[in-house]
Structure prediction request, 232 residues.
Amino acid sequence: MAQNANTPSHVGIIMDGNGRWATGRSLPRLAGHKKGAEVLEGIIEHADDIGVKYLSVYAFSTENWKRASDEVSGLMSLFEYYLKNKLEKFKPKHGRLRFAGRRDRFSASLLEAIENFERETRDETGIQIILCVDYGGRQELVDAVKNIVSSGVAPSDIDEAVISRSLYLPDVPDPDLIIRTSGELRMSNFWLWKSAYSELYFTDTLWPDFDNAALDEAVAAYATRDRRKGGV
Ligand code: IPE
Ligand code: IPE
Ligand code: MG
Prediction:
């Protein structure tokens, strides 16, 4: 479907609540993550259908390494499974998969799966899916500062544009709408710089219960917002 004037071009989602969804059903937390991954597959299709151009999803934060080692390794295996098994299903839809986050803490096989998926979809011109894995907004700024300092730019030449183009995916526009599921009212280190003027939408729905209608509801709420961006 074509994008209309009120469709957000870039939607970011903090996919939260997998653990509570599983615990509420007396299942291991990983069962919630598996269900969450299935839900994401459907949401990617629906976002594309309604004209979203960029969908960024927060899948693992720089702080999530603190969790129990079996949960962390289960999540890493789940990422790798999807990246290795879903390329064939994803490719015909002409979407492009990209990653935002650190890349130095993954296993060699996960990193290879990430790089392979990126390479295989690099020239696609459809919806861009940005998987934020080992992503932290503060870490992104740390990495940007390192890039800026090593480029030798003079302090007097540093402005917002210099910082913007030193961040992870400089060509990806700022999110218009950021959705957080599960009732938590915080950003948890997501898109620290790019979210300056994003519209925020919070829902109590746990991520594994999120569906097309829930996305439509968030987009409808966005359509009513007055984005003044400091103007009147
Ligand atoms: C979000 O669900 C997924 C990740 C952070 C990896 P959680 O695992 O945080 O679920 P809750 O918040 O504990 O319910
Ligand atoms: C934010 O969720 C990160 C992801 C959804 C990947 P968390 O569950 O880690 O956030 P906090 O701990 O509730 O702030
Ligand atoms: Mg959580």
Remarks:
- The beta strands are 10-14, 54-61, 96-100, 128-135, 177-180, 199-202.
- The mean pLDDT is 97.
- Residues 15-20, 60, 64, 75, 182 surround IPE (ligand 1) (CB under 6 Å).
